[in-house]
């Protein structure tokens, strides 16, 4: 906030100097009252502005690619600067370009091998690339550095499970639950439930998902998972209720809508199934299961 205030003050000084030289200060004054414009940002970048302050302005102006260019120009002056590489990686991560984000986080580690954010990002990337053993090394490195929180132990537990180190999985989950807060308790219980399903214990998974709802009663993933378990038991109405609740609390999720569509199609409610699968495809158009179900429903309609 202090940097932003100083930036605006310097902009005002720079604009006042420019206005005095050109004899026209009305346009600049009006722009500053409404907010910082692109022209001001470009002017101040030539005068004094360090890259990370100028990037803040471009991000607020919704110009992430320009922000990346500013950071890269800064890297030309300060090669391998940790803060500049971290800023580029964060912007790429916000844009969903994970490959470039991982690349710049790796550059961060070349300059500072104790950077917690970069180590965590590398671990996450390896985990979702089906390399839990390598991800485990990164998370253990964080533990050795003194990072001690529920999220880290949760990730360690998942890595241990997928790396088939089952003796450490529950131990890490116990430590994660002991450190959990109200904000992340439900997520940890959902992960424990997934591990229980992986071990074939559906009763334990059911209890874990119920505990997740006890911690956070609007947890969409827990409702969806409970719906799947109820559907497997043949409890149609309970499953439908869980899927509807999940779709209500998680409008960004396509899974409850697809599950609801599949359940409705099984019981012969084609109209509801058709509506649900269309909503699922709006969220995730490339989902193969939803596309196949839609074709199946259309075939039913064509036979009527």
Tell me briefly what this model is.
It contains 18 helices and no strands. It has 304 residues and is an all-alpha fold.
Structural class: mainly alpha
**How many H/I helical runs?**
18
Q: How would you state the average pLDDT, rounded?
A: 84
Largest sheet: none
The ordered string of helix (H) and strand (E) elements is HHHHHHHHHHHHHHHHHH
Can you tell me about this structure?
The protein has 304 residues and is an all-alpha fold. It has 18 helices and no strands. The N and C termini lie far apart (65 Å).
Comma- or semicolon-separated keywords:
304 residues, 0% strand, mainly alpha, single chain, globular, disordered N terminus
Annotate the secondary structure layout.
Layout: H1 2-22, H2 26-34, H3 38-47, H4 51-60, H5 64-77, H6 82-95, H7 98-111, H8 116-128, H9 132-144, H10 150-162, H11 166-179, H12 185-198, H13 202-215, H14 220-232, H15 236-249, H16 255-266, H17 270-283, H18 288-302
Helix pairs in contact: 1-2, 1-3, 3-4, 4-5, 5-6, 6-7, 7-8, 8-9, 9-10, 10-11, 11-12, 12-13, 13-14, 14-15, 14-16, 15-16, 16-17, 16-18, 17-18
